[in-house]
Amino acid sequence: MTRMSLRFGLILCAALGALPRGSAQDAPRKPLPQDRAEGARAIDPARAREYLGVLASADFEGRGTGQEGYRKAAEYVRAHFERLGLEGGAADGSYFQAVPWTMVQAKPAAPGLAVVRGDTPLWSLGVAEGLRGNASTATKVDQALALVVTADPDGADLEALDLKDRAVVVALVRKPDAAAPGDARAVQRLGMAARSRLARAVNQAGGRFVALADDLAWQGAGSFEPISRAGREAAGPAGSARGNQPTICIVRLADAQALLTALGEAQPLAELALPRKFTLDGVHVRLTIEVETGQAPAWNVLAILRGSDPKLKDEFVGVGSHLDHLGKRGETIFFGADDDGSGSAGLMCIAEAFAKNPQRPKRSILFMAFCGEEMGLVGSGYFARNPTVPLEAMVAELQIDMIGRNEEGERGEEKAEDNLDCLHLIGSEKLSSELHATCLALNERAGFAFEWDAEDVFYRSDHWNFARQGVPIAFFFTGFHPQYHKPTDTVDRIDYGKLARIATYVYDLAFELAQAEQRPRIDAEKWSGLQGKARETPAAPIRN
Ligand SMILES: [Zn+2]
Fold first, then answer.
1. Which of 387, 377, 412 is nearest to 469 (CA)?
2. How far is the CA of 397 from the centre of ligand 1 (A)?
3. Dist. CA 70 → ligand 1 center (Å)
4. How far, in Å, is the centroid of ligand 1 from the Cα of 319?
5. pTM as predicted
6. Spelled out in words, what is the top-level CATH class assigned to the domain 104-294?
7. pLDDT digits over 226-282, tens only?
8. CA 373 to ligand 1 center in whole angstroms
9. Which of 297, 541, 276, 306 is CA-nearest to residue 435?
10. Where are the chain's structural domains?
11. DSSP letters along 242-303, please?
């Protein structure tokens, strides 16, 4: 069927409702060249929906780096690459480049948080009975108790109290009319705020902040869940590996009431004149927490389609997405369907297209699903400092992050239905006008309404770690929406037709760059103007 009849055929079908919504606009405007058309047929909305349905499933728990959900996602993408017959892209030939990521599992020893007089236990609370909190270092407390009761979440009224050398348990009696915050994140924020302010106030009063009794903070707290954080090497010179978090126990107000009773004080907390401090001779807080550390699930998943040209096969076109998202926080899963489940599903489709295309391009293609992007571009930063292919041989890095939606303003100022064709092309002209020109030329086939970088996201995804090394980059992004970084970024909101269309365009672009005589060069003037460069001379050749 020719293009004209194809077009007429599509509209007719659409009119007959035979095809899903927008299918007429999901197909590339013009067919792809013969040398890559066959492979492109492997990219379709149904396949993208299948892959994204798994990546953004409850089972993968929002793919938090260092969490079990990320291990599942990495394994899923690895198996996909292996099934396609692609080579492993890691230095050891496997598909996993391990990124130093420490998992710290705190284990409060029985009976948990305890209050004793000499060796006589007066009160205790274990994890099984509701003790919550977190710790990243081994902790031992055996110190005189001060139970402090306050109604001020900022702890301003604690300054007057002498808490010197005391292990302090703070009971926060919130005002009954205090409005309950809307969503889980607001609960967590309020709880965290009280924790840090009361901790500061107790420390200033000379005490050691051991526990907070506050129902709001308790709701948003985990039960000594494993803490995962980037290792120093992963965080790199500029990055800051998250330091040790102070040990803190979180209990409910009712637990503090029970403690007060155990200390022989029967009055309800809410009826006390506040602030109030309770200490008794010989009464101590006891708490022992052991920690186990290990490598957490944090890998860049890498695969190579080896090029066909004896010489050019040693040059690479990089296609990247980030596989991680915010993960699971307490009981809340951040599914990250668009961010960046859509890009990772797109990456899987593009890899499939290359693997199924009868003709291999001259240069090689490196497929990269990064970890730790949400923690500060950690996985791609580690790759750029420990590249498994020479950065000098990487002719471009094409980044796809959030390609599954139509841009939508928080307050309706921008409507999704006005952005069905919209695609942000970011950073391509920041380093290489030659790469930028190729992006524009191939859009003749794809037919997107390009937007540029109004949102200033050039530094906010993995391509930046390549740009600062002097690798020409192009970043593709469909824009923000009200569900960005919320648990509501779910698969039912994704425009699969658009996702497949963008994946087809990026496949076409990668193929073009892999076939081209001349690789894109860095414009000398642009390079000299680039802030935050990681090296003096760019990895790619310069064009004066
Ligand atoms: Zn993202």
1. 387
2. 16
3. 15
4. 15
5. 0.81
6. alpha beta
7. 777 777 667 665 555 555 667 889 999 999 999 999 999 989 999 999 999 999 999
8. 7
9. 541
10. 34-99+298-543, 104-294
11. --PPPPEEEE-HHHHHHHHHHTT--S-GGGS-SSEEE--TTEEEEEEEEEEEEE-S-EEEEE
pLDDT level of residue 354 (50, 70, 90 thresholds):
very high
- Between the CA of 477 and the centroid of ligand 1 the distance, in Å, is 9
Distance 185 CA to ligand 1 centre (A): 19
**Cα of 524 from ligand 1 centre, angstroms:** 30
Residue 358, pLDDT > 70, answer yes
- Ligand 1 centre to CA of 48 (Å) is 17
Query: From the CA of 8, how far away is ligand 1's center (Å)?
Result: 37
Determine the distance separating the centroid of ligand 1 and the alpha carbon of 378, expressed in angstroms: 12
Tokens found for residue 447: 């037919």
Please tell me the distance from the alpha carbon of residue 320 to that of residue 343, in angstroms, as a whole number. 8
End-to-end CA distance of the chain: 46
Q: Which amino acid appears at position 207 of this protein? A: G
Determine the angle formed by the axes of helices 343-356 and 68-83, rounding to 10 degrees. Answer: 20
Phi, psi of 277 (to 5 degrees): -120, 135
How far is residue 402's CA from residue 337's CA, in Å, rounded to a whole number? 9
The rounded Å distance from CA 442 to ligand 1 centre is 25
State how far Cα 259 lies from the chain centre: 40
User: How far, in Å, from the CA of 306 to the mean position of ligand 1?
Assistant: 28
Q: Which CATH number fits domain 34-99+298-543: 3.40.630.10, 3.90.1150.10, 3.30.365.10, 3.40.50.620?
A: 3.40.630.10
CA pair distance 438, 100, nearest whole angstrom: 37
505 Cα to the center of ligand 1, angstroms:
19
Task: Report how far ligand 1's centroid is from the alpha carbon of 461 (Å).
Answer: 6
For the record, the structure tokens of 91 come out as 């230095």
User: pLDDT value at position 17?
Assistant: 46
Task: Tell me, in angstroms, the distance from the centre of ligand 1 to residue 485's CA.
Answer: 9
Domains 34-99+298-543 and 104-294 share a fold: no
For residue 336, report the distance from its CA to the centre of ligand 1, in Å: 8
Q: How far is the CA of 97 from the centre of ligand 1 (A)?
A: 20
Better-scored residue on pLDDT, 412 or 307 = 307
